[in-house]
Each structure stands twice: as structure tokens, then as C-alpha cells.
Design brief:
The chain is built from two helices and eight strands. It has 143 residues and is mainly beta. The protein has a single domain, classed as 60s Ribosomal Protein L30, Chain: A (2-Layer Sandwich). A hairpin with a 5-residue loop joins strand 4 and strand 5.
Length: 143
């Protein structure tokens, strides 16, 4: 199943995608396409520590990631007016300028959750069949 929606000027890109996923109870999905532009951007770089941000009109040339009502993990690439590109781990604080067109693919027979991983130090993706005991346990533990 596909979900298609448009975001408008002033919406937070990350928070709006997350809100849509939660409102539609998407247990497992992926961003198929995300294009548009933002006037403010906020990304974490590959160190996993440094957060970079800026206020400038940039095109969204790529939005990708896994989505679930149990947590979203999104990356974005942007392009400046001179066509140089940059990207990283999307954080709240990316504000849509004119529009953002989003297409999500829902994966009906899976549930994505996130659990702490001692090796990486992050909550990492756990994939389970829909309706499994692990899935039901994870859902009960969610606030």
C-alpha cells in the first residue's frame, strides 16, 4: 500500500512525516520519494554527534528511510542554489519552504521497532513479522 501526501510551507519535514505515520498506524514502511524544498535545515553528520544547520532555500533532492509508529529513521540530501549537494541524518527543525511531496510504501506483513544496540549506542531497527510474539511485546512496552 502506498501513502502519498503533500506538506506545506512552515511545516517541519521530520515531524510531519512522523505525525502522518503515527496517525495512519503504519507499523513498517519506507520512504519511496521525497522532493520539495526547505528554508531551514538541520542534519546530524556521520560522526553521530555533530549537528549542522542553516537557514537558506535548498531543494530536497532525496529523502529516504524507514518509518514506523514505533520510530522513524530518515536521511535527506539537499541542493544549494549553486547545485552543490549535502546531506545527513534528518532531525526536527527542517522547515518546508514551498512544498514537500512525500510517497511512503507500507509493508503490511512486518513491524519495525527500535531497540538499544550496545555496539552502536543507538536504538537500531528490529524487523519482526506482523502479529509475532516479539511484535506484541514491543507494542505493549510502547508508551
Amino acid at each position: 500500500m502506498y501513502h502519498c501526501f503533500r506538506l506545506h510551507r512552515g511545516q517541519d519535514l521530520y515531524e510531519a512525516v512522523e505525525a502522518y505515520v503515527n496517525a495512519h498506524h503504519i507499523a513498517a514502511g519506507a520512504v519511496v520519494s521525497g522532493v520539495g524544498c526547505v528554508s531551514r535545515w538541520r542534519l546530524r553528520d556521520a560522526t553521530g554527534v555533530r549537528v549542522r544547520s542553516g537557514e537558506e532555500d535548498v531543494e530536497i533532492v532525496s529523502l529516504m528511510g524507514t518509518v514506523s509508529e514505533h520510530g522513524c529513521h530518515l536521511h535527506a540530501s539537499f541542493s544549494r542554489a549553486d547545485l552543490t549537494a549535502f546531506g545527513g541524518h534528518l532531525l526536527p527543525g527542517c522547515i518546508v519552504n514551498t512544498t514537500a511531496e512525500i510517497v511512503l510504501a507500507e509493508i503490511p506483513d512486518r513491524v519495525f521497532t527500535r531497540q538499544p544496540d550496545s555496539e552502536t549506542g543507538y536504538d537500531e531497527l528490529v524487523i519482526a513479522p506482523a502479529g509475532s510474539k516479539e511484535t506484541m511485546k514491543d507494542r505493549r512496552e510502547q508508551p
